[in-house]
Amino acid sequence: xxDPILVLDHVTKRFGPVTVIxxxxxxxxxxxxxxxxxxxxxxxxxLIKMMAGIYxxxxxRILVDGKEVTIxxxxxxxxxxxxxxxxxxxxxxxxxxxxxxxxxRTPSRGGIFNKxxxxxAARRALDMIGLDVDPATPVGKLGVAKQQLVEIAKALSQxxxxxxxxxxxxxxxKPEITALxxxxxDLRGKNVAMVFISHHLDEIAQIGDDISVLRDGQLVGELPAxxxxxxxxxxxxxxxxxxxxxxxxxxxxxVLLEVDGLTRAGAFSDVxxxxxxxxxxxxxxxxxxxxxxxxxxIAGADKYDSGSVRVGGKPLPQGYLDAAIKAGVGLVPxxxxxxxxxxxxxxxxxxxxxxxxxxxxWGLADLAGxxxxxxxxxxxxxxxxASMDQPIRNLSGGNQQKVVFGRWLMANTKILxxxxxxxxxxxxxxxxxxxxxxxxTERGGAVVMVSSELPEVLGMSDRILVMSAGKVAGELPAxxxxxxxxxxxxxxxxxxxLKEQDLQAYDHQENR
Length: 512
Ligand SMILES: Nc1ncnc2c1ncn2[C@@H]1O[C@H](COP(=O)(O)OP(=O)(O)OP(=O)(O)O)[C@@H](O)[C@H]1O
Ligand SMILES: [Mg+2]
Prior knowledge:
This protein is of the alpha/beta class.
């Protein structure tokens, strides 16, 4: 066995009175992929932040090449050959792709920024991961998936000895994940050590070597990556999960949402569908198919050129979030950090955001009631937090997602629009979210769920709408449908159209 490059040796980390990492030891070895597995809030990101120089341990030691070190900041980590892809995107939106990739390392000649060398180096990094974007594009114009690929390219360009990947696949699609894994295999061959975090157990079996399982900040097991999934789930969640997709179909009632001929140039065209009370409509398609754009248009977040949206038979005016909320339409967005949450505010404020005005009497906000209902909702979703007053920023990624979800639950939303609702959510909490979807349809609500996870679409929808290049390619009953059926429709409209539409969507984002 080769000596580890880095060891977190009996480390402990506290935030105020709360111990979030308790006496954990993790070795990271050249040429091997160490997987950190655990529920949302178990402490995975906190551990890797100690390797990356963002946090310092309160107890224990960090060894690099067998010697105790202090990794004082991110620069120090870089100097030790440690590169990190963080869970939340850390790019500068106004800077170009190339500048982001080369940030802090831009080549210069005679003290002058060498644009060509910077772009060439960036291009090489982008090629490694197979990302076809112009290095001059401002990062903020790219969608979440492409931004994630830029982050990965940035880390790869550092030629690190230790590469840390915190949920790099969360917003990627199958082909992109395959490309990433190919790069990781290659790095493994070059003896690079890797730390990998994912909530997708199949990915862990595919790319991992050794697994450290965490529960509530403690190490509860060290296993080979080939361990059977049920065994892993039991270790991380502390119980077994017998039904991953617990959809209980209710009989559909009256039409709650009717979208007719919805069109916005360059994003989607002639999109029509109906959703009835008690139904879950799954929306499948490739990244760039226009699914997010359609949801945002329905929710009043963006305008559209033509077509109409009716809720309970009444037309919904376009472009007004407030009007949509009032009509009982809620959106859990794809990018919770940019669109869903007020990061500086507390859990309580974030979860109560949609109901603050509707529960007010004579213009006075019902803060006490609000807090009580918020606390109940958070408990129901098992949001892991120190208190309702904790800033949302300090919650783990998956727990932030639960809060956005909880906001609409609390608002008794009639029509819930979900965009990748379980992204970054652990296996146990996923089931909890699915149960909530069931409870919404049971009480007569309707759910539209955009998801890139086909098993989730197949397992939790009643009907599936497939979009391709901005258009509805077809509709299937979920019962009896296969992944192949969905994919065949998803790629129906040609690829060229897809690319063109992608570009126009970026232009649109800029104008927003
Ligand atoms: N700066 C902070 N201040 C206070 N508490 C924090 C801070 N950062 C993290 N925590 C807490 O530490 C715990 C572990 O969080 P961490 O982000 O490491 O979880 P995780 O395992 O990465 O979860 P996820 O799968 O959701 O990403 C959580 O309970 C979180 O609320
Ligand atoms: Mg995390």
